[in-house]
Structure formats: C-alpha cells, structure tokens
Please model this.
Amino acid sequence: MALPFSGRKDGLSLSEALPDRSLFILVAMMSFLAALTLTGATGARTLSTRWAGGAAQLLTIQVSEPDQPLAVTSKADKTAQPTRADAVLADLATLPTGTQVHRLTQDELARLLTPWLGDAGKTALPLPAVIEVRLAEGQEAPTNLEQTLDAHVPGTVVEHNAEWSTRLRALAQSLLACAALALATVGGIATMITALATKAGLSTRRDIIKILHGLGATDSYIAGRFAWRTGGLALGGGLLGTLLAMAPLLLLFRMAAPFAASTLQAASTTMPDWRTLPDLLPGDMLIGLAALPFVAAFIGWVTTQFMVRVWLRRLP
Amino acid sequence: MIRLTNVSWRRERKASTPVLSNLSFEVPQGGFRWLLGPSGAGKTSLLSLLHVESLPSDGTLCLLDKDVTAHTHRSVLVRLRQRIGMVHQDFRLMPDLSVADNVALPMRLQHRPEDEITDEVQSILKWVGLGDQLGVRASRLSGGEQQRTAIARAIVHRPGLILADEPTNALEEPQAHKLLDMFSELSSMGTTVIVATHNEALVRRLPRPALVLERGRLVQDGA
Ligand SMILES: Nc1ncnc2c1ncn2[C@@H]1O[C@H](COP(=O)(O)OP(=O)(O)OP(=O)(O)O)[C@@H](O)[C@H]1O
Ligand SMILES: [Mg+2]
Model:
C-alpha cells in the first residue's frame, strides 16, 4: 500500500524559510566579482613573474652596421675579418655557461618592426643587429659589459631591463595585494549575507525547530539541514556568477595576450584566435575559477553551521 | 525512574518568584502518576522540566538514570529526549506535514529503518482511529484528531517515559477511556507515565498515586 509519507520530510520547509532568490542572486553577484578579481590577480602575477624572472634576466644588445668588418686598422685580409656582429657574439660567448645568446633573424626583426615601419623587409633603413641575451637564473650581467663591448666594437648599445622591471614588479605586487584585499572583502560580504539569511530563516522556523528539538533532533541534524540548503544555494549562485564572468574574462585575456609573451622572438602583435585562446589561459587561474563555486558553497555551509549551532545553544 | 531533589525553577534567572519551588519526589520505573492541581499551579512547567525543555534553577533532577543537572553534555540530553514521549497541551504538530509524517518524526530522527517506521506508524494510527487519515495535513485536522496524532507521535517510538499534558481534553469519553487503558498497560510493561489532568472522572476511573501542585509547591508527593 502506498503511504502518504514524503520521504525525509521533517517540517522545516527550508525552501520557504530560506528562499532561493535573494541568496542565490547575491552569491552569484559576489562570485562574478570574485572571478573578475581573481583574473586580475592572475594577470598581475603573470606579469610580475615575467618581469621578475624573465625581463630582468634579459639583455638586448644593438650592434649598428652589423655586417661591416670589425676594424679596418688591421693590415690583414679584409675577408678574414669577422663582422661587427660576429665580434660581439664572440665576446658574448665568454659569458657564464647557461647564458642563451640569440641574434634575431631578418624575419624576426621585420616582424617586430612591422607596426612601426610597415613592411620592414623592404625598408632602405640600415637596421642594426639585435641580439637577445638571456642570463641563467640568478646570474647577473657583468657591470662593465657595455664598456667592454663598446671598446671592442664601437657603437654597441646594451639595454638592461632590470631597473624598470623592478618598478613594474612593485606595481604588479601592489595590484596583487589589492586583489587579495578585494577577494577577502567579497568573502566577508558573502559570510554576512549568509549569516543574515540564516538568521531570518531561523526566526521564521523558530517554533518548528523547538518542536524538532523536543522530539530529539540533534544540533548537527538541524544545523546540517540549514547548512546544506545555504551551501547548495551558494554553490548554484557561485556557478552562475563564475560562468557569467567567463565572457568578459575571455575578452580581456585575448586583448592581454600579446603583452604576455616572454621573449622578443615569441612576441606577436596580433590577438590570438578565439579557438586557441583556452590554451593561453593560465592553468592555475582556471583551477581558481573552478574552485570559486565550491569556496562559495563552503563559506555558506560553515557560516550557517556556526549560526544555527549558536542559536540552538539557547535551548538546553 | 525519576527523582527530583529540592528542584526550583524560575522562568528567568532574576525572576523574583519561582514557578516551581522546592519539589522533591520520586517515581519508580514503570510507575503511573497523575499530576493534579488548579490551573496555573505549574503542571505544564513541571512536565517541561521533565522533558528537558529547560533545566532546573536549583536542585537535582535525575531522569532515566541520568542526572541532567550535573553539567550533562548536550548530546546526552538529546539522547535522553529521544527516550521521552511528550503530549503537549497545545499538541505542537508540524502543520505542513501529513499525519503519518508527523507521527514518523521521532523514529526518523533516530534513523530507524523506513519499513519499520511504516509498520509502526500505520498500526499506531489505526489504533488511535486515524487509520484513514494518514495523508491529511496536520493543519486540516480537528482538535480531537490533532490530539490523537500528538498521542500517537508520543508513543510510536516506545519511549521509556511518557509525559502527557491534558491528553484527553479534546477527546470524547470512549476515546479517553481507551487512551487511559493503554497508558495503564504501558506502565505495567515498564514505561513510566505521568498524566496531568483536570478531569476528576478520569482520575476516579483509574485510581493511581497523584502528585498535586498548588502555586508551584507540591502538596502531595504521590508516595
Ligand atoms: N509563557 C509564559 N510566560 C510567563 N509566565 C507563564 C508562561 N506560561 C505560564 N506562565 C505562568 O507560570 C505559572 C505556571 O503555569 P503552567 O502553565 O505551568 O500552569 P498549569 O498548571 O499547566 O496550568 P493549566 O492547568 O491552566 O494548564 C502560571 O502562574 C502562569 O501564569
Ligand atoms: Mg498546563
């Protein structure tokens, strides 16, 4: 015989006591904000590591008139003379092992200059040789490198990135701190919203809870019922908010992609194709975004557990 | 068994006059006691103390071999409450739940298997005459039906102590007599039963020791 039992119903009717709309929407908005902040933070961190580890270790050396022989003072055969560029390369070979030296090819150079000079391959301007020197981790360039090179091959310019990279790194780090602060604030607001919703739910279910308590319901049962409800709503809201944030995020990342390259060779002036975009998104950011709904659910669950248990303390 | 020693209870900590003062009595396991006294004497208050809805302000209270006044942990009090069946004067049903779900609640809160719950709930509701109203929402019941549902909920899980506050005031005489016979039978099988009532005819029908309250004091301790 079919019984009019309704499964595990206990009379709390939490779908009415804790209506989905307000909490769900508020958590969705919070998660949206958190997702954007998280992305900003990831971006700032990526640039900061690039400037700390990448750009600071990078020297750019320009050699003018690269294909001229080094010196005409020598009496030796002109053809045996190394070119100015080769002479600089030879000097650079004496740098500590682990140093990578790369002379940009004509094509690479042309690609770099395209935005400024148009089709640079056909330009009549005499182009210098550009040599990229990547020092090994923890290595520093000899302080007198420029003097040494300039003495040997007059007109050689060494550009060192360390100074401006320190400043940019400080900027990126303060951006990171702001993002952390914003995330903490969002978390705090989410906690307060959940606490208020729980409080309202408790006061509308006051008599029902007293009856359940009298019938022998444990604190963990009652707190659990409320907490799974708010946790579930927060999970849903978190999912929605994060998904909604994905659209502006992808747009942002597509625009930022050209600046994220770590060497001149890889630098590209065009935005990446939409299809390859997912590969460019940093993995830890994707993990952070995926974790967001669960963090929201956890905040909701813990806050409600705490509130309900404190409330129940007034009953013996 | 129940043992009270110099128990007093104030509604608020600083209240001047206690609702119950200096109560001492003992009821052995399987004992039946009437709880009598004029309106406002404190019968409901005493039953709520025995149901551990509040704790005594003074004195010691032992219930089912547990001293509830000795800083007992909350989880112990919860388990104690699960072993007590209480029929409230105002029934305290879950208005949105069906009769069957209301009666099933104490067993569900103890995680008893669902088929056992189904059997017990069905037979107890048949016994109180609500066998064909299992699916009716509690808020749609008449006073007498609500009272019978509350009685069924108080005994369905076979508690060791039954506390009934005016359990017959909404019932017709035959139903009241039937209920009384069951309480008497349960007590002879080892359940302690305390029934508060104004109904003197009922008391005459089942002559048992009485605890008599007057303005919060015990004038007859049922010994
Ligand atoms: N909610 C309350 N707030 C304040 N005082 C109360 C409250 N309920 C009862 N009282 C008082 O406590 C005292 C004992 O009340 P209680 O309900 O225990 O009496 P009772 O013997 O059950 O009466 P009745 O036979 O009418 O049910 C009475 O003086 C009453 O006025
Ligand atoms: Mg009363």
